[in-house]
Amino acid sequence: MLALLVLATVALASAALASAHHGGEHFEGEKVFRVNVEDENHINIIHELASTTQIDFWKPDSVTQIKPHSTVDFHVKAEDIVTVENVLKQNELPYKVLISNLRNVVEAQFDSRVRATGHSYEKYNKWETIEAWTQQVATENPALISRSVIGTTFEGRAIYLLKVGKAGQNKPAIFMDCGFHAREWISPAFCQWFVREAVRTYGQEIQMTELLDKLDFYVLPVLNIDGYIYTWTKSRLWRKTRSTHAGSSCIGTDPNRNFDAGWCEIGASQNPCAETYCGPAAESEKETKALADFIRNNLSSIKAYLTIHSYSQMMIYPYSYAYKLGENNAELNALAKATVKELASLHGTKYTYGPGATTIYPAAGGSDDWAYDQGIRYSFTFELRDTGRYGFLLPESQIRATCEETLLAIKYVASYVLEHLY
Fold first, then answer.
1. pLDDT for res 200
2. Are 236 and 108 contacting, i.e. CB atoms less than 8 angstroms apart?
3. In CA terms, which of 8, 113, 239, 305 is 20 to 30 Å from 93?
4. Which of 361, 405, 368 is nearest to 386 (CA)?
C-alpha cells in the first residue's frame, strides 16, 4: 500500500511539473504538420485553412510569408486535425506529420541527464533563475563582466545587459542578443553558454583570450522577458511581447517586426492578433526601444550585431525587408559561408546562409536590418537547431552540442571582425 502511495505521489509530482513547464496547456493530441507547397493554388489552400481553423505557423512565421516551392510547418489543435488532414488530402498537398502528439514532445524537452536545482547551462532556466545568474556571474567575475540595466519591459521587469571583456579604453564591441521570440528557448540558453565559456576559457584558450582582451561583447541574455515568463507559466508556444493595444483584446507585438527598417511593409501584419504584428509604430515596444537606444548610444564602438533565434539552422544577413543586397554583400556572403563551415566542423550540423528575404522569407522591421542600416557592417541572424523534428521544443539533451557549435561560429565571426575593424 505504501509503495502504491509513493508511486501515486511521484506520478502526481511529475504531472504537476509537466503542467508547470507548459503552463497548464496539455497539448494532448495536437500535431505539427509539414506541407510541401508547390504553387499559388497550394498557397491559397493554406490561406483558406488558416482563415477557418486556428493554425499556429512555426515556419514561416505567418501565412503571408509562404512561397511556392517551399515547406510550411504549422501546429494544429486537436479539434481541427481531421479538418486539416481532409483538406490537405482532397487537394493533394503532400504533407507529413512532424510531431504526432505535441504533449509528448513538450514534456520530452526536459530530457537532459543533468540534475540541477538552480541554474544549469545544460537545462532550460526560468527567468528568475537567469536573472539571479546575471548577478552572480557578474559578481564572481568582476575583471571580465559587468551588468547593467538598459530599460524595462512592458510589465516592468529590468532588461539586463552583460558587458563581457577585459577592461580597456575605446575597445570595439560586438552586440549579441537572445530571447527575442519567447518560445525559442534554445536562444537564451546560448547567451548563457557564451558567457560561461568566455569566463571559463579566458586565459586558457588563445582565441577567446585575444577576443576578450581586444573586444567587448555586449550580451543581452533575454530581450522578451515578459513573453519568456509567459511560455513557462501559461502558454509554451507564445512568441510575442505581452503589451496591450488600444481597441484590441489581443496581446503582444512581434519584437522582430518592430524596428524602424522598412517597418510593417512586408512579411509583417497590422493585425494585433497576428503572430507577426508590427506594433502600432516602430519601436512601440519598450523592449525594442531599449535595445535600439543602447545601440544608438554606443554606435561608434559596436562593429557587429548578432541576434540569436531558432529554428531552421540558418545564418542570414541583410536584407529581409526588401529584395535588395547590402553594399558589402559579397563580404557578408563569404563570411557566412566560412562561418557555417566552421560551425559544421564540430558535429556536422549543416546550416544554409544568405540574404534574409531570399534565404528564409521577406520580413520588415527586423533588428538585423535595422542595425545594418545604422552602419554596423556585420549584422547576422542565427537560426539555431533544428530543422523541424522538434522545432521550438528542442530537447535539453541537445543544448550542449547546439551551444558548442554555435560558439565556434560566434568566435569565428568575432575574430573576422577584429581583423576587419572600420
1. 97
2. no
3. 239
4. 405
Please state the three-class secondary structure of 181-220 as a single string. CCCCCHHHHHHHHHHHHHHHHCCCCHHHHHHHHHCEEEEE
CA gap 368, 380 in Å, rounded: 6
Find residue 96's DSSP bridge partners.
Answer: 34
As given in the structure block, the three cell numbers for residue 158 are: 529590468
Q: In what order do the strands lie in the sheet with 314-317?
A: 145-152, 158-164, 216-220, 173-178, 302-310, 378-384, 314-317, 352-355
Dihedral of CA atoms 157, 158, 164, 166 in degrees, nearest 10, equals: -160
Sequence-ordered list of residues with C-beta below 8 angstroms from that of 327, at least 6 positions apart, any chain: none
- Is the previous residue joined to 311 through a cis bond, with omega within 30 degrees of 0? yes
Residues near 168 by beta carbon (within 8 Å), at least 6 away in sequence: 213, 214
Determine the pLDDT at residue 324: 95
To which residue does cell 526536459 refer?
A: 110
Q: How far is CA 179 from CA 55, 185, 236, 257, 279, in A?
A: 23, 7, 14, 14, 18
For residue 403, what are the contacts with CB-CB under 8 A and spacing of at least 6? 121, 189, 190, 193, 194
**Three-state helix/strand/coil letters over 288-357:** HHHHHHHHHHCCCCEEEEEEEEECCCEEEECCCCCCCCCCCHHHHHHHHHHHHHHHHHHHCCCCEEEEHH
CA distance 130 to 192: 8
Asked if 323 and 367 touch (Cβ cutoff 8 Å), the reply is: no
Q: Residues 6 or more apart from 128 whose CB is under 8 A from it? A: none
Burial class (CB in 10 A: 0-12, 13-18, 19+), 69: exposed
325-340 pLDDT, tens digit each: 999 999 999 999 999 9
Cα 78 to chain centroid, rounded: 26
What digits encode the pLDDT tens for the residues 265-311? 999 999 999 999 999 999 999 999 999 999 999 999 999 999 999 99
With cut-offs at 50, 70 and 90, classify the pLDDT of residue 24: low
Q: For 346-361, what is each residue's pLDDT tens digit?
A: 999 999 999 999 998 8
Instruction: Give catalytic residue positions.
Output: 383
Which residues, 6 or more positions from 215, have their beta carbon under 8 angstroms from its beta carbon? 165, 171, 172, 173, 174, 414, 417, 418
> In what helix (H) or strand (E) does residue 382 lie, and over which residues does it extend?
strand 378-384
The total of other beta-carbon atoms located within 10 Å of residue 384's CB is: 26
C-alpha cell at 328: 558589402
Is residue 13 over pLDDT 90? Answer: no
